[in-house]
Design a protein that fits this description.
With about 50 residues, this protein is mostly beta strands. Strands 1-2 form a two-stranded antiparallel ribbon. Strands 3-4 form a two-stranded antiparallel ribbon.
């Protein structure tokens, strides 16, 4: 059985008062965020097709 290798991005944000990172989200096919700057990444195209 063959498994597909797809990227997953875990995003964390620094909480300045506690100086600790907290999770913001986990993204599969597309990473889309507005903070700290707008970004959209198509994660499916980061992995080379075999």
């Amino acid at each position: 059985m063959k498994h597909e290798a797809k990227p997953v991005v875990h995003v964390h944000e620094l909480d300045k008062p506690t100086n600790a990172y907290s999770p913001v989200g986990m993204f599969g096919s597309e990473l889309k965020l507005e903070f700290p700057f707008p970004i959209v990444l198509d994660l499916d195209h980061l992995v080379r097709a075999e």
